[in-house]
Amino acid sequence: MATELNFTLHPAQQEIFQSPKRFKVVGAGRRFGKSYLARVKLIVEALKLENEYGYDLSDKACYYIAPTFNQAKDIMWQSLKQMAAPITKKIRENECILTLSNDRQIHLKGSDRPESLRGVGLSYVVMDEYAFMKEEVWTAIIRPTLADVRGGALFIGTPNGKNHFYDLFLSASEGEDVGDWDAWTFKSLDNPFLDPKEVVLATKDMPLEFVKQEFEANFSSFGGTVFKEDMFEIVDHDTYGSDIYMTVDPAGYEDVKGIAHGRTKRLDETAISVVEVTEHGWHVFDVITGRWNVRETALRILRTAQKYRPRAVGIERGALKNALMPYLSDNMRRLNVFPYITELTHGNQKKYDRIVWALQGRMEQGRLTFQDGEYLDKLFDQMLDFPNPLAHDDMIDSLAYIDQIARVNYHFEEDIGESQWEPLDPVSGM
Question: pTM for the whole thing?
Fold first, then answer.
């Protein structure tokens, strides 16, 4: 059946696929081909009506689980439908369920909806980016559903420090249950379809720690000071060009429901970052901060946009953004400024990871410079204190969001095909 469906696995994928172990743990770099391997494994397992232990699987399902349902859909749904098209009997789009020609089903699920994972007998499950799920999703919910037919599981992901995914990897490598388990680590370049030059291009703005983690599949935790004084480079630009972006990290409030009516007590500061993004890197023109109410915040955003004329203004998603929008709309015509406003999300990333990813590597390599100004002392103080949980980080959080709305698109010189492509960040799907 694999030949009929034209599955093609590179040697490292084949090694994992052919292993007879029930439970497989794979820590691999970006674009190794984890998602492609997962699709092949799900389809092959769902085509079985009986497993090697002699159990009837006709009423059992196969699950693909990502940290959220939306991520599962973004990463897997279209490509899975395409790969399984020759043997698909029925498709339930809203629920993301495929019924194959043998009446067995493949479901896409999110670990953020644990109630949807209960009560169903499974024969196989793929856990994608287990590091970003609660450990109990596997131990308390999924593992028991596999017991009655001795079902199997494939854990795939890029390392994210020494967490429960790391513990599972160690246990699978050398633990007491190693007889049923196996584990592998592979670098991105273990995918022979990946051009090494593209890895160099994709990592040029990344800190070394992230390169080791994201492309070399290193489980090491980050440590030490993130930002050092010798990383700050002040360069005066007389003018600014057309590639300006703005990001807004709205302040927190005690009474979010009362924001629109002004019945709030302001806690942190709102931060508005203004950055020019070119092929040479980022240049920070300003990071404006203040404790403003919602009306004042909307006016600050529009006045700043009026001055710099950004390509886009990103505002962090949530109740605070929703509260801001009516005031932004009301004042756009009056001020004659109509910026393009887009929504920012944390993509299920920890704040620490998001900030380090966006800023540290660029600063290390001289690709993030700062315009001299009154904001600098405060910004530098926040950066040198980071990641102190007792210190403010609104300015650097806002600055890090620039990476999301001004993201560089990496183009491959050779077409490696959809089957071998993975998002640079599978958690956000980007």
Answer: 0.57
